Amino acid sequence: MKDFIKIHENDNVIVALREIKAGEAVTVADGTVEACETIPAGHKMAICDVAAGEEVIKYGFRIGNAKENIRAGQWIHVHNIKTALGDLLEYTYEPVHMDVAKTKKATFMGFRRPDGKVGVRNEIWIIPTVGCVNNIATAMAKAADQRVRGSVEEVVAFPHPYGCSQMGDDQEHTRTILADLVNHPNAGGVLVLGLGCENSNIGELKKYIGAYDENRVKFLVCQECEDEMEEGAKLLDELIGYAAEAKREPIDASKLIIGMKCGGSDGFSGITANPLVGKFSDILIGKGGTTILTEVPEMFGAETLLMNRCENRELFDQTVTLINDFKQYFKDNHQTIYENPSPGNKKGGISTLEDKSLGCTQKSGSAPVRGVLSYGERVETPGLNLLSAPGNDLVAATALAASGAHIVLFTTGRGTPFASPVPTVKISSNSMLAGKKKNWIDFNAGVLVENAGLDEMGQKLFDYVMKVASGEKVCSEKAGFHDMAIFKQGVTL
């Protein structure tokens, strides 16, 4: 294993891959640098003097400016570097031609739905229209799960606190996300469970769901029946009977839609796990598949790299709007745009939002941007898509599922047990986490700083995702975790 990495030839920092002790000498291309102080693993050390106000360079780009004079060998972190980012910006389209090579065809064993969509799970979902019926939905799922048969894998409820006392776009977003989940092909059957008096009642929600298969989607209004548990059990048994007949069959990988998200990032995330997901994205897109990158606030500082990869001017303009609208959302709520990274990020070695964003966007690989999606909008264009959603792990992962992702790839340096409406593959940025939290972590990218190559591990990750798409359970599924969260943006009445 290497002791450190210099990510780009123009960088004036290195990243410690293990703790570098004070007084220890490291050799870089320009000579030997002695550590002035202990540098924690995942953190940055200056390899040349950086004057106050000068740029600190990592990934070949500015990650901030020095607050004070920094000597070669000093630890660079939040105490001596600050963000150089501003507020709303104007951008110039400077297109960079990017493309990925076509890769050999592959298949997974999935479920082909009557409407032409494909799923990687055959579950029965209970979608509450309002938080008032959450406990009923959970109780129904627990009881019906004992009666699954055939190819039905599980009955899952997705409680949430919304659906009433909302206004304007906030309520629209709730209805859109719930309708997206009703239409998701990982669900072989869906029970939409309403109370009856809520704003987002079943009659309203049907307008967002659109055309549906009456065998696959059932509705129950609790206020309109004498015993909702009994009525719900009957409907769930009908849905189980319908979905039980579905069979897995070979499906081309071009039909796969994969969401990409990171959380609890550390100094290794932009070196191992995120580039690995970027390599996976290129492999899948090379087979005609689709990937979705989200968490817009963690594009700030690296957004021009994505903008200039847009396939045309229209997509560039949409990406500018994606970025500036999210910045305006912060400003409208009187919040600092660059209040990021988190305490855990900082402890892991990330110092500024630029540092975090340049690592985060590694997940996009090298493909051109072919689609830009609003929150709740379903993906239509194969290739790399950008999705408007916040950085919050549960909200962003739910947004990816709502936009059509069959699986979410979630990279992490610190670990998290959460799940989403779809299988959520946890990819560790370091081997210590993978060894410590085997009940959380599905794939270890930490070996990339040990003895493994990116191409080799990219193919291994792709092969693993094909297994997950074919039915292999990820850790959160084995634990019985199923989470969802809607982006709360407005007034509560």
Q: Sketch the major β-sheet.
A: 7 strands, parallel
Proportion of strand residues: 15-25%
N- to C-terminal separation?
A: 57 Å
Average pLDDT = 95
Q: Which geometry do the CA atoms define? A: globular
Helical amount among residues, as a percent range? 25-40%
Poorly predicted segments: none
- Strand segment count: 23
Number of domains: 3
Helix count equals 13
Task: Explain what this protein looks like in three dimensions.
With 493 residues, the protein is an alpha/beta fold. It has three domains: 4-82, Archaeosine Trna-guanine Transglycosylase, Chain: A, domain 4 (Roll); 123-245, Rossmann fold (3-Layer(aba) Sandwich); 251-478. Helices cover 28% and strands 20% of the residues. The chain is built from 13 helices and 23 strands. The strands form six sheets. Strands 19-20-18-17-21-22-23 form a seven-stranded parallel beta sheet, sandwiched between helices. Helix 3 (202-209) links the parallel strand 14 (187-194) and strand 15. Helix 1 packs across helix 4 (228-243), helix 2 (168-182) crosses helix 3 (202-209) and helix 2 packs across helix 10 (393-402). The termini are far apart.
